[in-house]
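Researcher: Here's the sequence for the chain we discussed earlier.
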Amino acid sequence: MKFIDEYRDGKAAARYARLIARATTKPWTIMEVCGGQTHAIVKFGIDELLPKDVELVHGPGCPVCVTPLELIDKAIEIASRPNVIFCSFGDMLRVPGSSKDLLVVKASGGDVRIVYSPLDAVKIAEANPAKEVVFFAVGFETTAPANAMAVFQAHQKGIGNFSILVSHVLVPPAMEAILSSPINRVQGFLAAGHVCTIMGYTEYEPIAQKYNIPIVVTGFEPLDILQGVYMCVKQLEEGRADVENQYARSVRKEGNLPAQKLISEVFCVVSRKWRGVGEIPQSGLGLRDEYREFDAELRFGVASYTAEESSECISGLILQGVKKPHECTAFGTRCTPERPLGATMVSSEGACAAYYRYRRVSVAS
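Model: Thanks. This is the structure I predict for it:
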């Protein structure tokens, strides 16, 4: 536990809080991009350590949260068909579609399996040549290399009964969508360290320059986040708009070049719909033409599916940093993790789920 405790030291956290307070002379609004960061902030009370003039708002950084409703419906339709083995990470099984979730399909007799790697799904396809094996490929740039490798291996081995249902989204276009919105409040970003471990952070530099906004690549432990906030506040106070790397123990400027090469071999950039936000141009990944035979949407004829989200849910405003979870009238009553209305409650990493777990009592009082 030594290395975890090192980044959760209470005295060091208090020192950073004092440094932030001394550096702050005016109000600032900073958005953390990743849902893992959001949960650390709420769980450890990091936002409560900050001076009142520094507000943290929560971004769209949970791939489970932002997987559009119609894609869940597509997954449910495919998984419900006979002769299909549907593979997914466990966190996707309880995400509700329009009428049910993948757990209900499994309970009804569907062959829905939890795997720990997309390569497990490739092995299942090899072992079951009479079945169609589908992997639910969800995530940011972080999980894209493994999903690309699964498709690449299936292609190399000629495994014709394997396909993936793609729901990959990209972080920089989402940040640009937030900054270009007329209701934008964000003045600085804490970028997601795990995404930058793969992609590096050169692609954030044009965003910082275009919108005159500081971006700090930040880790996930309390001291990571506090140091990231301090670096961001220092830039704001000094009138700078640079990309800085707090998470240097994991992130290099150029990122993981072999992983990027594999992603670009299998995937191309496409527009993608984000649950709670809508379509963002050039914000996702889709299979290249050379690998279209592995596209589950085309193989099972579900590409045209559409679905409407709850009109009561304000998750779109929460994902853009305009509202906080407790400002929703349905929070904790008509919307709970067991019966979520929208994006930010559907995943354990969503902002609403974090507030429900760690702040429900204080919000209610």
